[in-house]
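WARN no homologs supplied; continuing
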Amino acid sequence: MGGAGICAYLTSKHAIIGLTKTAALEQGPRGVRVNACCPGPIAGRMTFKLAEEVFVGSNKTFAETVPLGRHGTPEDVAGLVSYLLSDDSSYPTGTAHSIDGGFTTAWSRHCGNQESRRIFRI
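OK structure emitted
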């Protein structure tokens, strides 16, 4: 996913995924698992402040752009991290797990939408 004006932000996110895969390859022979948690719009100050900037002049939130119709919670993210740290997750390594309510899955749907093109400057 990309967007105008957020090059450094997106570069850092993609770097984490590359680092995760490389570290998994390097550390796998030692039995070390390396996975990434990639949260989307999680309820909190940063998400709400960004929504004010993106949806200027409306009461709209990112929850309306998420297929599940809500912001994620810190507990949603903690649940995924807890699973990845548990013995129930003993085989996955080098993976990136989106926890975004389908936000990135729906991104292509938003790309053709005129309002989304204005909001996300695409």
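The mean pLDDT is 86.
OK
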